[in-house]
Automatic annotation (TrEMBL):
InterPro entries: YdbS-like_PH. The keyword Transmembrane applies. This is Membrane protein YdbS with pleckstrin-like domain. It holds the Pfam family bPH_2. The chain crosses the membrane at residues 25-45, 57-76. It comes from Arthrobacter bambusae.
């Protein structure tokens, strides 16, 4: 995994499963079909003669623009998934993500209130899960998608135990 300037030195980053690309592509496909379908309605209405406005060129240009943006996002999905990683340290868990706008989040074990493992329908079929970390701060949006189910269960138990141990030591 490529290290960013904001990453602490000397860490061994673990990656999420490559199968997570499939989850993201399914999400992408559903979102784009709905979006392009909705923005194509004016084109359909103009072609059927129900609407006189917008002009035909605009009715074609808007869904075409959304299609181009959607295709660009599709091209980025594999790279975005490769950029997601995590590292366990003695006192905290680090989560990193992002290509253009990189982010490394540090979640101290002592701040964790509970650890949640969620599974959607596509993730379930692929044997993946999403680990969600809930802390005392409402602003913490720590989640780690695309983990193999066994790794998610292991992390849930390990992080919960470490969090309880750190809280007991306060």
């Amino acid at each position: 995994m490529h290290t960013a300037a904001i990453d602490p030195p000397g860490l061994q980053w673990l990656r999420v499963s490559r199968k997570y690309v499939t989850v993201r592509i399914v999400e992408w496909a559903i979102g784009n079909v709905i979006t392009i379908g909705l923005f194509s309605l004016p084109l359909l209405f103009v072609e059927l003669g129900w609407w006189k406005w917008p002009p035909l060129w605009l009715a074609v240009a808007v869904p075409a623009a959304f299609l181009l943006v959607g295709l660009w996002r599709l091209v980025l999905i594999p790279r975005q998934v490769r950029a997601i990683g995590y590292a366990e340290r003695d006192d905290d868990l680090l989560i990193r993500r992002g290509i253009f706008f990189q982010r490394t989040m540090v979640v101290p074990y002592g701040r964790m209130q509970y650890v949640d493992v969620a599974v959607g329908p596509v993730e379930r079929v692929l044997g993946l899960c999403t680990l969600k970390l809930h802390t005392a701060s409402a602003g913490t949006n720590a989640h780690l998608p695309g983990l193999p189910a066994a790794e998610g269960a292991r992390l849930r138990e390990q992080l919960s135990a470490r969090g309880e141990a750190r809280l007991a030591g306060l």
